[in-house]
Fold this protein.
Amino acid sequence: MTLDVVLVGFGNVARGFVDLLRENRTAIAREGLEVRIIGVATRRHGQVYSRRGVDARALIDRLERTGAIGAQTFASTTAFIRDAVRRGAAAARQARLVVIETTPLDIERGQPAIDHVRAALKGGAHVVSANKGPVAFAYRALAREAGRAGRRYLFEGAVMDGIPIFNLVRETLPCVTVTGFRGVVNSTTNHILSAMESGEPFDAALGAMQRAGIAEADASFDVDGWDAAAKTAALANVLLGARLTPASVAREGIAGVTPARVAAVRAAGRRLKLVASAAHIGKGVRARVALQELPAADLLAGLDGQQNALILQTDLLGELAIVQRGAGLTQTAYALLADLITIARQCPSAQGASGARRRARRDRSL
């Protein structure tokens, strides 16, 4: 099966995805899958489209050399998507067209990423995204639209990089209800707190995350807790059936943390962590991101550097924990690839749109 892919956003994650495709082409071929990139759109560096496929690695080289991948043919990335899905209508009819959305997080409204997802679904494309904004602001509406279109909207890379949180619940926990969760879900802040325990200054630890491309483009999203709040809203909306936005998550960041406080907590045998949590309270869902002093025996207290973990509270299986020992761009890029393979496995063109609609309705029931 050949999936025709349109990349919307061409930053570190998308470029890592391009390299991942090349480095793992043999394993991808074993899945019976070929991935052909037919379009790339950026907000400031130009847009490229060819139904026969584009050389994305050459576009990376051109971008690094000239600062552009091509002409800015369309006024917006949303307009580019509409044109790309129209031109890829044959692949869309065969359920082989995928739009991959990796633009930066907009913490106020989740835009224009929400419009990107809608334009792709309306044109008959599946959507894979590493952008937590649409899930945090408009998950229910987008899930309904995907169901009506008979297409998949997958977003494993939105939380904890490539670790299969959403897939875990959707595919492997039938009849299990998630009642709450708690975890460390922001790599940048966990690295900073861990580094400060070793005496490294706050700014130096943050700078290391920025140079690695792991910190958000606006680092205040990380240190002020907004990234964690968006992930908390996304998790709560999908796993707990909530209707949250990042602004409705009680939020605390680490900007005011001093070396003295970190040292005092450590000396007392505890560790300071930025913990995201949510749970059903009455008929609603209460969520927060807060600095907590955790005892050494707490699983979350054992996380160092960029490590993340999420503990799911369930009705039938008690607590389930998944730990990510290494986080980075490769893991997020892998999430995009994993979602593509999910589409190829579950939505082959031979099954047609009716089977895809049934699966999409099932996903909405999570």
Notes: The longest strand covers residues 270-281. The chain has two domains: 2-161+330-364, 169-326. The domain at 169-326 is CATH 3.30.360.10 (Dihydrodipicolinate Reductase; domain 2). The chain has 15 helices and twelve strands.
